[in-house]
Amino acid sequence: MVTDFSVSILAAGSTTLLLAICSIVLATVIGLAGAFAKLSENKILKRTASVYTFVIRGIPDLVWMLLLFYSLPSFLNQTADALGWDIHFEFPPIGAAIATLGLIFGAYMTETFRTALLNIPRGQIEAALAYGLPRTRIFLRIILPQLTRLALPGFTNNWLVLAKATALASLIGLHDVMFRAKGAAEATSMPFTFFLVAAGFYLSLTLCSMVGLSMVAKRTSAGERELAR
Amino acid sequence: MNWNVIAENAPLYLAGTKLTLLLAFTSLAASFLLALPLAFLRNSAHPGIRYSVSTYTLLFRGTPLLVQLFLIYFGLAQFGLIRETFIWPWLSSPLVCVLLTFILNTTAYSTEIFAGALRSIPVGELEAARAYGLSRFKQATRILVPAMLTRSLPLYGNEMIMMLHATSLASTVTLMETTGVARRITLDNYIQFEPYVTAAGIYLTITFVIVSAFQIVQRRFAGYLEPRST
Question: Among A91, B3, B9, B147, which is most exposed with the fewest C-beta within 10 angstroms?
Answer without folding.
Answer: B3
